[in-house]
Design goal:
By secondary structure, the protein is mainly beta. It is 8% helix and 44% strand. It is built from 2 helices and 32 strands. The strands form 8 sheets. A 4-stranded antiparallel beta sheet has the order 3-2-1-32, with no helix packed on it. A 4-stranded antiparallel beta sheet has the order 4-5-6-7, with no helix packed on it. It is globular and about 55 Å long.
């Protein structure tokens, strides 16, 4: 065969192969629709048992997923690669959502009534705190297989359950702490426990350290952003319980003895969320219980410095990522209002009225925007934090919690 013809045939064949490969690659990319996770998030639609997957750069809803059960008081943590959202439902459901594929990856019913959870420092364990039957269950984050059950204290003064089992204390205020530890409070038995999973692969069971008589009925708790201090609020008496995780040998000490309803027992429409505390510089900004005030506390001495008059009873007091301002929402019937305060002067910057039942706020990672869930308007609103002006409104069915993926890299979130 002519050498020239052979060369022409070879070129034609090579061109055909390249064209086919290019066509396949283009089709594959178009089908895959690659998506990054760094500017994504999940919004709880509590009334319908659904969640929305959102992108906060585009300010857009990407998908909606149903079948998540009772999402009242639901919360979310993320895998360290930000791909998976772990949703803690009130009905005891633990759901792992793949936010890249817009679907449920795994779901287990782990108890009868649960109230939040946490993910370990190494991202390998997910823990859930339970009201019923009490205690904490810990799961493998990849498979959701049960790793450990930590039974809470038995309430000896309570009659047994119908099945003959003992009634155990409800667990609240569960957070992750450095070195693969979980810290939580026992509401009915007035305790704080630390569960150490740092050697779980070798010892198979966690080491549990227990602190008793820490104060009456701890109802919620937080951990400081550096993972040092665990602070529990007390429902049964004024004051708070503080545990220094750098020096647990010192035990739990009482702080802020006047924090609570005080001698004048005012009606409390909703107990403040402690995880909504703002820590900015040397100050913590916290909601007063039943009072129209935001309290300012020195985090070095844990003494109150001053108080800021507010519109109504605060629920969340949240700091922007730059700590220049705190944003405050309020309890019913004044839950249509948001107030913004300067953290240096403590002065009011602006009062906003987004609409009925503003339940939650979430800042974008660098703080240029804040998203708000306005439940009774079925809206999520986005505001510019510099000007406090409304940028966009999106439809959402009874939205409550908003959780962006940058939480994956913060202690206690």
């Amino acid at each position: 065969m002519n050498t020239k013809l052979i060369k022409l045939a070879s070129v034609a064949l090579l061109s055909s192969i390249i064209s086919a490969c290019a066509s396949y690659s283009t089709d594959e990319v178009a089908e895959t629709k690659l998506r990054a996770t760094g500017d994504m998030g999940v919004i709880i639609e509590r009334a319908t048992g659904q969640v929305q997957i959102v992108n906060h750069t585009q300010q857009a809803v990407l998908a909606e997923i149903d079948g998540l059960g009772d999402l009242s008081h639901a919360s979310i943590v993320y895998s360290r690669d930000q791909r998976y959202a772990y949703v803690f439902g009130r009905d005891g459901g633990l759901t792992k959502i793949d936010i890249l594929k817009d679907k449920i990856a795994k779901r287990v019913m782990q108890s009868g009534n649960s109230i939040g959870g946490a993910i370990s420092q190494d991202g390998k364990l997910v823990a859930v705190s339970n009201y019923t039957p009490g205690g904490v269950k810990v799961f493998n984050s990849q498979t959701l297989e049960l790793v450990a059950t930590i039974d809470s204290s038995v309430l000896t003064t309570k009659p047994k359950n119908k099945d003959g089992s003992s009634v155990r204390s409800k667990v609240v205020g569960l957070v992750d702490a450095p070195n693969n530890k979980f810290v939580f409070s026992l509401f009915d038995s007035h305790e704080i426990w630390i569960a150490d999973f740092s050697d779980i692969e070798k010892n198979k069971t966690p080491k549990v350290t227990k602190f008793t008589d820490i104060g009456l009925f701890p109802y919620d708790a937080l951990i400081s952003p550096d993972g040092r201090y665990y602070i529990a609020g007390l429902f049964g008496e004024d004051g708070m319980a503080l545990l220094d995780l750098w020096h647990i040998e010192k035990g739990v000490k009482r702080i802020l003895p006047n924090y609570g309803k005080g001698q004048q027992k005012l009606p409390v429409y909703k107990m403040p969320h402690l995880e909504g505390w703002a820590m900015a510089g040397d100050y913590a900004f916290m909601p007063a219980v039943g009072q129209h005030k935001v309290l300012v506390v020195n985090t070095k001495t844990w003494q109150q410095v001053t108080e800021i008059p507010a519109h109504s009873q605060p629920i969340f007091v949240m700091a922007q990522p730059d700590n220049r301002q705190v944003w405050v929402n309020f309890a019913y019937p004044d839950n249509n209002t948001i107030q913004v305060f300067n953290t240096e002067t403590f002065e009011l910057v602006k009062t906003l009225t987004p609409g009925p039942a503003v339940l939650h706020m979430e800042f974008t990672p660098r703080g240029e925007h804040v998203w708000m869930s306005v439940r009774d308007s079925n809206e999520v609103q986005v505001y510019d934090t510099e000007t406090q002006t409304l940028l966009k409104t999106m439809r959402s069915k009874s939205p409550s919690g908003i959780f962006f993926t940058n939480r994956a890299h913060h202690i206690g979130l």
